[in-house]
Amino acid sequence: MSVKNLVSEFVKEAPPYVVGADEQSKSMRPGVTKLLQLATNENPFGTSPKAAEAICQQAPLANRYPDVRAQDLRKKLAEKHGLSVDEVMVTEGATAGLGFIAEVFIQPGDEIILTPPTYPSYYNYVKRCRGKLVEVPLEEDTLTPDFNKVLAAITDKTKVIVAMHYAGVACEMDTIMDIARRHNLMVVEDAAQGVMSSYKGKALGTIGDFGCYSFHETKNYSMGEGGALVINNPDYNERAEILREKGTNRAKFFRGQVDKYTWVDFGDSYLPSELNAAYLWAQLLHADEINENRLTSWHRYREAFLPLAEAGKIELQHIPAECTHNAHMFYLKCKNLEERTEFIRFLKENDILAVFHYIPLHSAPAGEKFGRFDGEDVYTTAESERLVRLPMYYGLTEDDQNKVIAKVLEFYEK
């Protein structure tokens, strides 16, 4: 029998890998050889002393089953977001939380409505479960979904709406929840960038049926690779425990609720390592300090560039009155793709790394193959071609930020 006959259809349908980066990817690389190079979101100074100390304290337990420090993480995340510990599941990546949702709820043929911009993980898990991902257009200028288009995309096969909180700024959750309840749909909040952000006083990730957080290297609070799933419906707590414990009721056993544990359902291992968990735990002890530091940098940028926005040379991020954000990123929008390309090149020549961000998934090779875009793409791609992110991280010094500000102003004074 040929090996090809043993390969699943999902793998066969995947587009072939092309060696080498495409031109767009190449343009993101710094190519700077001088001493000063500002990072984008990642802290360039390496591991903090407090995080290193936490790892050293945990190192003697590195051979243990990885669920000691993870329990501390659950408690701290629950405390920060006004949740009970039972509502938080810590995982080795944000995508693991998505995997739980997909494996439990998505059946072949189900449709999942996605509000861009977001990451390919949704496509991957939905495709594995033989579902279909439907991307809806953005409204003009706001990077939030067009809710009329969300309504138009709903069919009798629709199961889930994924609400993306881009840059840690909430989308209009009241409207999304109203649409979902009227059509009996589940809501998953993509709050990967939204830790410490809120909507009308409620933490992002705690409003829909589920919320997903990311602690990837590029996030405000990092464990290298890691995440958490917030379960806002208590009916799913036990199922989540079983799934993350490889399909066993081991958690009940350790709580003394059963005299032995056994295999009760399908499952997997989603636990982060003890060392990664310790690294993040140390940061969460100082979450407010980190948040305030980033917000200070964010507001300095905004104050400096407000005259450019008022003159119509750039557009700045819109923060609705009901939203409290976490300064996950500072971006501005150029006039068009040509100006953005020239702007990024100018900053690079001055030893400053600024990058564009999301590429609409429906325009990617896999997106064209595995999903569909519902409606007309009037603003989604156009907005993605204008956006550029400036250096933003905890510990960004005033001197370095002043250099960024000066060079941005210099570019637009030309």
Structural summary, described in words:
- With 414 residues, the chain is an alpha/beta fold.
- It is built from 16 helices and 14 strands.
- The strands form 3 sheets. Strands 1-9-8-5-4-2-3-13 form an 8-stranded mixed beta sheet, with helices on both faces. A 3-stranded antiparallel beta sheet has the order 7-6-11, with no helix packed on it. A 3-stranded antiparallel beta sheet has the order 10-12-14, with helices on one face.
- Helix 12 runs parallel beside helix 16 (398-413).
- The protein is globular.
- It starts with 8 loop residues before the first helix and ends with a helix.
- Residues 17-37 have low confidence and may be disordered.
In short:
With 414 residues, this protein is of the alpha/beta class. The chain is built from 16 helices and 14 strands.
Please tell me what the overall shape is.
Answer: globular
The total of beta strands comes to 14
Topology as a string of helices (H) and strands (E): HHHHEHEHEHEHEEEEEHHHHEEEHHEHEH
Which stretches are poorly predicted, pLDDT < 50 over at least 5 residues?
A: 17-37
| CA gyration radius, whole angstroms | 22 Å
